[in-house]
Design brief:
By secondary structure, the protein is mainly β. The chain is 12% helix and 34% strand. The chain contains 3 helices and 12 strands.
Amino acid sequence: MSTILDTFVAPPCHDEIEILYQDEHLLLINKPSGLLSLSGKNPQNLDSVHYRLVQIYPGCTLVHRLDFGTSGLMVVARNKAINAALCQQFSQRAVTKVYSALLCGHLKQDDGVIDAAIVKDPALFPLMSISAISGKPARSRFRVIERFNQLLKDGRSLPLTRVQLMPETGRTHQLRLHCQHLGHPIWGCDLYGGREWPGTEQTSRLMLHASELRLVHPISHEQINVCHASPF
């Protein structure tokens, strides 16, 4: 059995968490890129979405997480009962999540489905892997918004595709791994090939943003549809 050793130390994040909506039951926030969702075991990784918010909203808990480099929409529960109700919506796949991303290269297809099971391998930590045999089912849909060429500071031209990504399951690193599986990793993704294409080495961040979130308010039962435009 492999021992997981997490040596990652997050650099300081000076960007603020944007509170988009709040009531006595929940918060809707915009997480900056470069901030952990939860504090890590390493004391140097204390700063996180949860650490910051619990100072202001005692008792709040995360319902779901975004990767360190991913920015965008998150829902946060103000108490345990609300957390349980929201978690149930997530587990029943009643929550719709839409992400904006920039992928390396030009996708040939205008839309499609990536159906590729994902497995955790402690020996490869923190990487996840595609495995049809031992992986858990993972399914994502994608839709091309535009194809263009980005002129870089050094004069090179980087072909990129702007897409909407709609995960139907919620596996760790699902969108990042699925895009690599397509042959078009997310620009800036250090784990799954997004800094290996010519011109992508010095990218400032992971080009993945949680741009839309749709769920039902656990108390009022009203439909919540929140959108936050991609910063890239």
